């Protein structure tokens, strides 16, 4: 590998040495700008990756919270619990057989007569 690089390096450097000092300075400046842009882009990539990891962690925490809230909602909305709260706190009770009345829905003309 070193031999290949050295084999390429010598002819290229031979051509660069033959260039005027102004072109050499221009090439050096171009190489420096490219190197700095690579370093800058790598730094931005690392910062964005860290931010992505934080967002993934937050999303996972929110999923856990969502599951906990769904469990809590199912607990609060359980029919036995709702009935217990209605009886204890609101003093509600189931209607007796004679207290229930069934009403038929009326027809389209506004009357409630059965057909």
UniProtKB/TrEMBL annotation:
Membrane topology of this protein: Single-pass type II membrane protein
Biological process per Gene Ontology, one example term: FtsZ-dependent cytokinesis
Subcellular location: Cell inner membrane; Cell membrane
Family: Belongs to the FtsL family.
Cell inner membrane listed as a keyword: yes
Any GO CC annotation of this UniProt entry: plasma membrane
Domain of life, source organism: Bacteria
The protein's role, per its UniProt record: Essential cell division protein. May link together the upstream cell division proteins, which are predominantly cytoplasmic, with the downstream cell division proteins, which are predominantly periplasmic.
Keyword tags: Cell cycle, Cell division, Cell inner membrane, Cell membrane, Membrane, Transmembrane, Transmembrane helix
Coiled coil: none
Signal peptide feature range: none
Record flagged with keyword Transmembrane helix: yes
Subunit structure and binding partners: Part of a complex composed of FtsB, FtsL and FtsQ.
Protein's name in the database: Cell division protein FtsL
